[in-house]
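Dear H.,

Thanks for agreeing to be a second pair of eyes. The structure we're designing against is below in C-alpha cell form, covering all 96 positions.
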C-alpha cells in the first residue's frame, strides 16, 4: 500500500516570484517516484507568467517546488497539483 504524506516548506523572498513552497512526497522506491514525476510533469502551469513549478526526484522522494507572484496563485496551483498527485498515487498503488 502506498503511503502518501507531504512535507511542506514555505518561503518568502524578494523577487519577481516572492512566494514559494516545496513539497517532499515519499514513494516506495525511486522507480515509483520517477514514474510519478513523468506523469505529473506533462501538465504545464496555465499561468506560467505568475507561477513556476519544478519537479525532481531525490532517491525515493518526489520534490516539487512552486514559486508564485501572489499567495492566491500559489494556493490555486498547489491545490490543482495535489488533486493530480492523489490520482497518480492511487494509480501507482493499484497497478505498480
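And this is the sequence the design step returned. I haven't edited it by hand at all.
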Amino acid at each position: 500500500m502506498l503511503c502518501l504524506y507531504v512535507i511542506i516548506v514555505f518561503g518568502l523572498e524578494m523577487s519577481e516570484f516572492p512566494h514559494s513552497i516545496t513539497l517532499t512526497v515519499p514513494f516506495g522506491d525511486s522507480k515509483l517516484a520517477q514514474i510519478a514525476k513523468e506523469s505529473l510533469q506533462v501538465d504545464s502551469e496555465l499561468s506560467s507568467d505568475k507561477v513556476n513549478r519544478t519537479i525532481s526526484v531525490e532517491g525515493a522522494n518526489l520534490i516539487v517546488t512552486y514559486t508564485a507572484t501572489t499567495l492566491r496563485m500559489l494556493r490555486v496551483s498547489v491545490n490543482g497539483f495535489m488533486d493530480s498527485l492523489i490520482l497518480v498515487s492511487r494509480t501507482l498503488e493499484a497497478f505498480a
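Two observations from my side: The chain has a mean pLDDT of 86. The radius of gyration is 13 Å.

Warmly,
E.
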